[in-house]
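Worked example 3. Consider a protein that binds NAP.
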Amino acid sequence: MHKIGFVGCGNMGRAMLSGVLSAGLCEPGDVVVSARTQKTLDAVHAEFGVDVASSNAEAAKAEMVILAVKPQMYESVIAEVAPTLSSEAIVVSIAPGKTLSWLSEKTGAKKIVRLMPNTPAAIGCGMTSVAYGDGLDEADQARVMAFVQSFGEGEVLSEHLFDAATAVAGCSPAYVYMFIEAMADAGVAEGLPRASAYRMAAAAVAGSARMVLETGQHPAALKDAVCSPAGTTIEGLRVLEEKGMRSAVIEGLLATVEKAKRL
Ligand SMILES: NC(=O)c1ccc[n+]([C@@H]2O[C@H](COP(=O)([O-])OP(=O)(O)OC[C@H]3O[C@@H](n4cnc5c(N)ncnc54)[C@H](OP(=O)(O)O)[C@@H]3O)[C@@H](O)[C@H]2O)c1
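Given these inputs, the predicted complex is written out as structure tokens:
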């Protein structure tokens, strides 16, 4: 029996798969993948050397089954896989909006967990929220956490906070990439070569994030330390506030939360 089955293997499935294999949590032969198209199956097999399944039901015979399709596909895909799930299988949902109780009703599975990962999982830098269903014992929870930590950090949350976690960690990499792109565009406008601009902007974001995580200082204190009196940074900050950057970020994330609630 395969240890892990991915039902669907697009952007998020591949990111998790890449992290799991790089960390050595299991061998490629321990993983089986299904997808909608043969093209994806061929590409995933060529890149990772994992087994490919001829159907979703076949991938769902694994010990841990990751439902890595879009939320809109969940109901039909679950109808396909539910009959072949083993009674001891751990069913993992990574979709926003699909609650543990909904998943339990649709899959009939005893052991269900919700994860909200993000794509930096691909390089072992994921941030994944975890909500365990009632059917998981301590050993099951440890297995899930080992899986999650193979591609980054895990944070156990009460399920009612999952929509917030979806915005703050699941979707936010897209907004951070947008910020990096915008900063680089400004650099290019002032003559920086494009490649240098992306590298410099990304390194500044990565370094700033590590400062927050590693110093434990409040983000506002770290910001104040960059803003010299009558200096250049405070001028930029003044304009960013005027343009509503802070509010734009908050409202953007709250729109994400609202969408997650409607799924
Ligand atoms: N992307 C993120 O950053 C992110 C973050 C957190 C959570 N998520 C969640 O992760 C899940 C997957 O998102 P994604 O971004 O990876 O989507 P995606 O890139 O569109 O990948 C979806 C995968 O599902 C497969 N698929 C579609 N219909 C299928 C079917 N009927 N049977 C089997 N496989 C099917 C697709 O196969 P083909 O490739 O053959 O079309 C593809 O491999 C979603 O629930 C999403 O909300 C995503």
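Take a moment to read the result before moving on. The pocket of NAP is lined by residues 7-13, 34-37, 40, 56, 68-71, 73, 77, 94-96, 116-119, 170 (CB under 6 Å). The domain at 4-157 is CATH 3.40.50.720 (Rossmann fold).
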